[in-house]
Amino acid sequence: MDSRELNLTDALVFRREVQRQISRSAESLSLFIVDMSSIKKIFSRNNPEIGHTFLSNIARLLQRICREHDKIYRIGDFTFGITLANVSSDIHIQLAAEKMVRVYDTAIHDLDVPYNAGVFIGIARYPENSAEAHDLIRKAGVALEASRTADDPYFVYRPDAVETLSLKWNLQEEVGAGITARDFDLHYQPKVSLSNGRVVGAEALLRWTSDSHGSVPPDIVIGIAREIGRMNELTQSLLTTALRQASEWPCGDDWRCGVSVNLDAETLKDPDIADVIASSLSIWGGTDHRLTLEITEAALVTESDTNFALLHKLRSMGIGLSIDDFGTGYSALSYFKRIPASELKIDKSFISNMLESTGDRNIVETIIELAHRFDMQVVAEGVESAEQRDMLKELGCDAAQGYFFSKPLTQQEYCQWLREAEIT
Question: How far apart are CA 149 and CA 163, in angstroms?
Fold first, then answer.
């Protein structure tokens, strides 16, 4: 192996080299495109000089696992093209890919820095997939995208992968267009006080219907927005919409106008998110915005020092913070005591079984007592019966939401629901 492992190889040169390897191969050849680009975020947080150390380690380790007639090319900053002659069986391809994954893990481990960045490998075979270098490279690229989509470390090209990825790319285009046009809806599910039955706010829930795919779950929309680099735009759009619509609710100046918006784990890591939220508040929030951000417990624990600094900044802006789905994450009290939260939401999995399960009922009671000791309000999610409501009230829970009170409603439906709730 020569210096090409560190020097970038031009795309045209790479194609010619692959074609040459195909021509020299008597039986078969497999092309591996190994993408390590997610490692770049580690270098941005640490000394950028370790990037060269990482590349040197990768080159050394790859050389160890490759045979004399195998070829390695660096075709991107942290992307490699590797040709393995006479390797085409599923088991041999799997063994080779797993060796490359171990090489990646070893190279990062040697850096002695915290990381959660993965490697993705796309694989195409000669002669099964193509005898032309340009087509083999393209199909390895399709397999690489399939690897990322499935969140698997490697993927061998299959014709059906093209159709699956085509659907994904179409959906990405639709989500991107939807963000530009602000073509997303919010539905609102009320939170109701268990002490007096009055509305104390509502949770905003993302809804979107694709022209070609129908109703698309919120987590899919959020994941795609992140993939196409437009998560900040979507977050600001949803926050602005929620604050604008909450200002239109027929509830005067009391806390029934409080609105909660979910903030996902990846968005919480974005250093610009506080400015995005402040921008939305400046448009519709004013000084009496009554905004609460719901953040999952697992997201609060991940990269905690950075997250806690952001959370304190948000609290200083007068924003409420709610620990969502409590009990399903790490539940580590060492983190819990540091979270500047104003509200805690008990996951519906505990609520649904607490009438029959003494264990779940004890967990719910313990969570309520713990939250109150830290001056947090407690909201139970997924309440579907009067019996559940009554038990939660008996256990000291402050508020609840769920289909017993109301399903998620459109803006128009929620305004009408509030008017009727005021009358009754």
Answer: 13
**pLDDT tens string for the chain (424 positions)?**
443 445 788 889 999 999 999 988 768 999 999 998 877 666 655 566 667 777 778 878 888 888 888 899 999 888 999 999 888 888 999 999 999 998 888 877 776 655 556 789 999 999 999 999 999 999 999 899 888 877 789 999 988 777 777 777 788 889 999 999 888 999 999 999 999 998 999 999 999 998 888 888 998 899 889 888 888 889 889 998 999 999 888 876 555 578 999 988 777 777 788 888 888 888 776 555 689 999 887 666 655 666 778 888 899 988 999 988 786 655 556 667 778 889 999 999 899 999 999 999 999 999 999 999 999 999 999 999 999 999 999 999 999 999 999 999 999 999 999 988 764 4
β-pair partners for 294 = 262, 322
Amino acid at 203: E
DSSP H or E stretch at residue 43: helix 40-45
Cα gap 94→100, rounded to integer Å: 10
Query: Which domains occur in the chain, in start order?
Result: 3-157 (3.30.70.270), 170-423 (3.20.20.450)
71-76: strand order across its sheet: 71-76, 79-85, 29-35, 120-126, 154-156
Helix residue ranges, H only, 112-230: 133-150, 159-181, 218-227
Buried b / exposed e along 263-283 (16+ C-beta atoms within 10 A): bbeebbebeebbebbeebbee
Distance CA 333, CA 300 (A): 12
Nearest to 155 by CA among 122, 117, 110: 122
Interatomic CA distance for residues 158 and 269, integer angstroms: 35
Task: Find out whether 239 and 267 touch, Cβ atoms under 8 Å.
Answer: no
d(CA 270, CA 184): 22
Query: How far apart are the C-alpha atoms of 222 and 20, rounded to whole Å?
Result: 43
Q: Are strands 399-400 and 377-380 parallel, antiparallel or unpaired?
A: parallel
Token duo for residue 378: 């407690």
CA-to-CA dists, residue 131 to 127, 230, 359, angstroms = 5, 38, 62
221, 237 Cβ separation under 8 angstroms: no
What crossing angle do the helices spanning 231-246 and 218-227 adopt, rounded to 10°? 130
